[in-house]
Specification:
This protein is an all-alpha fold. The protein contains 43 helices and 4 strands. Helix 29 packs antiparallel against helix 30 and helix 39 packs across helix 40. The longest helix is centred in the middle third of the chain and has 40 residues.
């Protein structure tokens, strides 16, 4: 047995030698349901057992291990796992009846026997080590028989029905052995009923069969007694009556033979006597608990053990079993089958060794059974019997991590795998971080991750399959179905958490529908105010149209957005701040490639990467020289307003709710055209809920974003003819150092029409501020051609947009140089004479403005 551990660096490199029922393309509906349902149970185990420990009022324990209360809860959890396997087996058997089976379903059908063995292992482990009463000090015979009959079905009902419908079944050589098998398995009612078929036989045989059936019908069984001593006394009395009947067997058949001889059927009577006498001798021997008879009749050690506790030693307890099985194993050997090895270790009283061997059966079984055993201290050595020398110290962590790796073969189950990694020790946490950074955040990344399946194990077992064939087999569909199944699972878990903590979580498109303001009511409520301002009413209608379009886009993007927020939620749960920031930046880069700059800004802000924010903002500023004014304004309008406000907080997740009492939609509420809905009041709501998305509420102070906001506001005020306010903004972006140096000349030239106004729009201080920048531009530009490109390059691009396509096409794909340096490198040739002439015009107008202000 290969444990695959490495001592070189002190860490385990555990891998599972067997994949169990998870061979090949395993992502069938039945297996995805098994993964999802058992995951819910698994992640709840630590909290449930911790609660049980707190609830425990005594220190009474099993084998000096966990308390009675903890064992009782562990038993319930084990039964849930067994139920999940039962549901999977039923679904697999149902799917196997289809007329046509794909490769995955066919493999699933082939795996049904192994799944049944897995359920048998869980059942036996539960019977021996996780008793329902939490103590397990009573007799165990009936429980063993129950396990046996559930894991290895005994005599079939069809055969019993055939015997009952036959006129004289006792002439069938298999009749009495079949009844003996029923007694061996505890099917006493069937055995007694079949014996009634002797009613038309010879009176002696008829009487013998009747007495035997009567004894079978009255056998004392432990579940009917509250007192073990009374049960054993009654059972002893019953066994004595069986032995009395057994002792009279020979004389009864002597009389039977004599009667047959008197009837002239001596030869036939001898043969019939032999068959009947041997049959009833074996039958009564089994009932009396003759160990030799039982071992001879048993087809496996499991059957022998079940009959031993039921018939040979009714007083059998869990502590007695390891001694008894040593005798049984001498006659009924343990096979080399991995599942059989696990079962044998369980009955030998070696739970740790059994746990170790489950890795050779199935990763699901190993992860869940080892975790449960470890949490109730069953992996600790119990005396000399369980002195397992090759037990890895991190067995539970290794098994959990191996199962998580198997789950990751289906990318749609990454969220479930993450929680298994989280419960797999330090190495699991390390792997958790790695996985979080490789989860596909966008549809494009998810598509790209499908291709490798054709070249590695798991879903791409078929060699040489191209992407089209893989899609034809439904691989992509299965991954998306798995994602949907995961989301449904997470909704159930979140609902449980919300009911316990009173918290809620935000959602995607569904939330957007619930949160959105009623468009008609919204317009009616503001109709009186807006009717006085036709421009405001037109603007509101335009915002309404844009909002409706963006809501539709939000619905289309909700799955992609939810995936990103799920990753960030996991990072928050595990306090992985650096990883969360890395995920935000990864999403920001992905959005940049799609030219969704507003979303890129949102995630950059949540990552608190001011350099990234500044770079994107600089790019948007430079687009002013490439795009016409209308398209540039639309580009800026996509940025959430919380980001554009100076020293604002980073926006929360998409789908944030809107308050119904919103008074000014345009001031408090915005939705980006990229399908991302934002609300600057989400901080207050999340404070009430006690939950915030990662990066929400983090201060964002970006001068470049503030310049975009101010410059966009300047154009709005200018269009609305609010010229004085527009003039104030131009001076503010220069004096506040918000405008980049390459944009100074543009701002100055924007001021020229305002300077020509008959009404002074700039006061003295503002005029001097403008003059100071004009002089710095002129002096620097005259000093060196590079300075001239810096200050006049943007103006040159605006004046000759057809000569500047590179910036628009390459976007942010180039090197991360400063925007001012890029302006110098990419600027077209500057017509210094024309530029200086315009600057002289500015000087003249500023001088005239100053003289008017001082008059």
């Amino acid at each position: 047995m290969d444990t695959n551990t490495s001592a070189g660096n002190g860490t385990s490199t555990y891998s599972l030698p067997a994949k169990g029922i998870w061979q090949g393309d395993w992502a069938t509906d039945a297996k995805l349901k098994l993964v999802s349902d058992s995951y819910i149970n698994f992640v709840s185990v630590p909290k449930i057992l911790e609660f049980a420990k707190q609830e425990s009022l005594t220190s009474q324990a099993l084998d000096e291990g966990a308390s009675t209360e903890v064992m009782q809860y562990a038993h319930k959890i084990s039964r849930l796992y067994r139920k999940r396997l039962g549901e999977y087996i039923a679904a697999a058997e149902s799917a196997a009846t289809a007329s046509e089976l794909d490769a995955a379903t066919f493999q699933q059908t082939e795996d049904i026997p192994l799944a049944q063995e897995m359920r048998s292992i869980l059942h036996l482990a539960e019977t021996f080590y996780l008793p329902a009463d939490g103590i397990g000090d009573g007799v165990v015979g009936e429980a063993l028989t129950h396990w046996l009959n559930h894991s290895r079905p005994g005599p079939s009902n069809e055969i019993a029905e055939d015997f009952m419908s036959a006129a004289t079944p006792y002439y069938n050589q298999e009749f009495l052995p079949f009844i003996n098998k029923c007694i061996l398995r505890g099917y006493f009612t069937i055995a007694a009923t079949l014996l009634s078929k002797f009613d038309d036989h010879h009176p002696i045989v008829q009487q013998l069969a009747s007495e035997t059936a009567q004894l079978i019908s009255t056998i004392p069984r432990s579940p009917a007694f509250n007192d073990a001593r009374k049960f054993l006394n009654k059972r002893h009395e019953w066994t004595e009556r069986v032995k009395v009947l057994q002792s009279s067997l020979q004389s009864e058949f002597d009389d039977f033979e004599a009667d047959r001889a008197r009837d002239g059927n001596e030869s036939d009577g001898n043969d019939e006597r032999l068959d009947l006498e041997v049959g009833f001798m074996i039958l009564l021997g089994t009932m009396a608990g003759d160990s030799e008879r039982i071992l001879e009749a048993s087809e496996s050690w499991q059957e022998a053990l079940g009959a031993w506790g039921l018939l040979v030693q009714p007083s059998l307890t869990r502590e007695d079993v390891p001694v008894i099985v040593s005798t049984i194993f001498e006659r009924c050997s343990v096979t080399a089958d991995p599942a059989d090895q696990v079962l044998a270790a369980l009955v030998r009283g070696e739970p740790a060794q059994a746990a170790l061997l489950t890795r050779n059966v199935d990763p699901w079984l190993a992860a869940h059974l080892i975790d449960l055993f470890d949490r109730v201290d069953l992996l600790l050595p119990i005396g000399d019997v369980d002195a397992t020398t090759d037990l890895p110290l991190s067995l539970r962590n290794d098994a959990t991590r191996a199962y998580a790796e198997m789950i990751l073969e289906d990318q749609g189950l990454w969220r479930i795998a993450i929680d298994y990694f989280a419960l797999a020790g330090s190495e699991g946490h390390h792997r958790l971080r790695e996985v979080l950074l490789t989860v596909p955040l966008t549809d494009e990344e998810e598509e790209a991750m499908i291709a490798p399946f054709g070249s590695r194990g798991g879903k791409g077992k078929g060699k040489g399959k191209d992407k089209a064939k893989l899609h034809g087999q439904g691989l992509q569909h299965k991954i998306r179905d798995a994602t949907k199944a995961h989301q449904q699972t997470m909704q159930r878990i979140r609902a449980l958490n919300a009911s316990a903590t009173g918290g809620t979580v935000w959602g995607g498109a569904e939330d957007a529908e619930d949160e959105g303001l009623n468009d008609e009511d919204d317009e009616l409520e503001t109709g009186t105010r807006d009717s006085l301002n036709p421009n405001a009413l037109a603007a509101r209608r335009e915002r309404k149209r844009r909002r409706q379009e963006r809501e539709r886009e939000l619905a289309a993007r909700s799955i992609e957005v939810q995936r990103v927020e799920d990753v960030l939620e996991v990072c928050q749960e595990h306090e992985l701040t650096l990883e969360a920031r890395a995920v935000c930046l990864k999403m920001a880069d992905a959005m940049l490639k799609q030219q969704r700059y507003s979303v890129a800004l949102e995630y950059s802000a949540r990552a608190q990467d001011e350099r990234h924010i500044g770079r994107i903002a600089d790019y948007l500023i430079d687009q002013y020289a490439v795009l016409d004014l209308r398209h540039w304004l639309e580009l800026v309008d996509k940025i959430p307003k919380p980001l554009l406000r100076g020293n604002a907080a980073a926006p929360g997740p998409p789908g944030a709710e809107a308050d119904d009492e919103d008074e000014e939609y345009e001031e408090d509420y915005d939705m980006t055209a990229d399908g991302m809905e934002m609300d600057n009041r989400s901080d207050e709501r999340d404070r009430k809920r006690g939950k915030r998305a990662f990066g929400q509420g983090v201060p964002v102070n970006s001068p470049r974003l503030r310049f975009l906001a101010k410059y966009r506001e300047f154009h709005r005020l200018y269009q609305e003819n609010d010229l004085r306010a527009a003039a104030n903004i131009l001076v503010e972006v220069l004096s506040g150092r918000l405008a980049p140096a390459r944009f100074w000349a543009v701002v100055v030239f924007d001021a020229l029409p305002l300077l020509e106004s008959e009404i002074p729009l700039f006061d003295v201080d503002q005029t001097f501020e403008l003059m100071r920048h004009v002089e710095q531009i002129c002096t620097s530009a005259a000093r060196h051609p590079i300075e001239a490109k810096l200050y006049f390059g943007t103006v040159a691009r605006i004046m000759s947009p057809s000569n500047d396509k590179s910036t628009s096409s390459t976007g942010l794909a180039g090197p991360a140089l400063s925007s001012d340096r890029l302006a110098i490198l990419s600027a077209p040739d500057v017509d210094m004479e024309a530029a200086m002439q315009r600057m002289n015009v500015a000087r003249t107008l500023l001088t005239q403005q100053l003289s008017r202000n001082t008059v």
